[in-house]
Write a structure and sequence with these properties.
Blueprint lengths: L10 E3 L7 E3 L89 H4 L9 H25 L4 H18 L2 E6 L8 E5 L6 H8 L3 E5 L8 H7 L3 E3 L7 H13 L3 E4 L19 H7 L3 E10 L16 H10 L3 E7 L11 H9 L13
Parallel strand pairs: 3-9, 4-7, 4-8, 5-6, 5-7
Antiparallel strand pairs: 1-2, 8-9
Helix pairs in contact: 2-3, 2-5, 2-8, 3-4, 6-7
């Protein structure tokens, strides 16, 4: 009995832009041999329809799956979050730890050392600048060493020595301080000021010794970090929004105890040609403690009266670079303008108190803008 023969019908393939080609099993459409495929443990059967994205969502439409068919899954496009994706995480060089992602709520300034800090002014010679830097570091180191002894003095005498030491720090850097107005000598007081430079800290302490509110990174600064910790600085983790209420409560507790606290409500340093908006949270501490607010305006000028941005400590500026720039500047003057104190009873909430403390900035533009 003869076995019926089965004749394989050549498959027909069509390529775009060409006529139909007849392909036999095991060959390409042009008749050339097809390379053998590697063995695949997963056997597929049937024909799978192509995935077509839907125009509305961009998701891949569902496919009809037949038995033994392997279906590839395509993830739907991720919808960016207004909180998580507002500030992308910068990528650092290879071999270094990536820079942390920015915070969506953390205040920032558009100022940068390259774009805002001037370099066309006449500078002091390198030997004199080196002497200034050595003298500045020596005065700071002396303050760190004498901090335990200062704690044994009476409050009035200790404050007097702190003021003298702070003025010595500023003068050792080659900066001439000019202070107008006065702050209440005793009692709880919230001192708020615009923030430009690290020089702001000794200048405000020369007005009245106080506890500073500083970011946690200051702990790691050489000499300055140790001095800040010993001086009762209140540190705030600016990357943790949940830590803000606890920080406000610590400030209110210090104010109730009769201490002065220095706060920079802008939350970031600006170059001095403009300033940021005052954040309202810290003013709640003054309202809770029932203490007055002392507004202070900080400016830096040269001897001829022109504004100067050399002391600005902004952006990714390094502390040592900023120190050298300050000691190299010629004829730099720091102006500290103390305005009348604000009573908490005269303001209904922290928003109006913050607006009154900031007042009308004497800058090139309104708060939050940059010329």
């Amino acid at each position: 009995m003869s076995t019926p023969r089965t004749t394989a019908t050549p498959a027909r393939t069509t390529e775009p832009g060409t006529a139909e080609h007849t392909a036999t099993p095991g060959s390409r459409g042009d008749g050339s041999p097809r390379p053998a495929a590697p063995p695949n443990p997963v056997t597929t059967s049937g024909t799978e329809p192509p995935a077509v994205p839907t125009p509305a969502t961009g998701r891949v439409a569902s496919r009809t799956r037949t038995p033994g068919t392997v279906v590839s899954r395509v993830a739907a496009p991720r919808v960016p979050s207004p909180w998580l994706d507002a500030v992308p995480a910068p990528r650092g060089p290879v071999g270094r730890r990536p820079a942390p992602a920015g915070s969506a709520w953390l205040p920032g300034a558009p100022c940068t050392p390259r774009g805002c800090v001037e370099s066309a002014r006449p500078w002091t010679g390198a030997p004199r600048s080196a002497l200034r830097l050595g003298g500045l570091l020596s005065v700071v180191l002396l303050g760190v060493l004498l901090t335990p002894l200062a704690g044994r003095l009476r409050a009035a005498r200790r404050d007097r020595w702190i003021r003298r030491w702070c003025l010595a720090v500023v003068r050792a850097a080659g900066v001439r301080p000019r202070i107008t107005g006065a702050a209440p000598p005793t009692g709880g007081l919230l001192i708020v000021a615009n923030h430009i430079s690290w020089l702001d800290i000794p200048l405000l302490a020369a007005v009245r010794p106080a506890r500073m509110l500083a970011k946690t990174e200051v702990r790691g600064w050489p000499l300055v970090g140790a001095l800040a910790a010993r001086g009762g600085t209140l540190f705030i983790d600016r990357d943790r929004l949940r830590a803000l209420p606890g920080t406000v409560e610590r400030i209110a507790g210090a104010l109730r105890a009769g201490a002065a606290v220095v706060v920079f409500p802008e939350g970031s340093t600006w170059c001095g040609r403009a300033q940021g908006r005052y954040r309202r949270a810290v003013f709640q501490a003054a309202l809770d403690a029932g203490t007055p607010v002392q507004p202070v305006r900080v400016r830096y000028r040269f001897a001829d009266g022109t504004p100067g941005t050399a002391p600005a400590f902004v952006g990714d500026d390094a502390l040592l670079t900023s120190l050298w720039r300050v000691v190299s500047a010629r004829g730099l003057v720091a102006e500290i303008d103390l305005r009348p104190t604000l009573a908490p009873d005269d303001h209904t909430d922290r928003r109006t108190l913050a607006a009154a403390a900031q007042g009308s900035p004497r800058a090139a533009g309104p708060p939050g803008t940059h010329p």
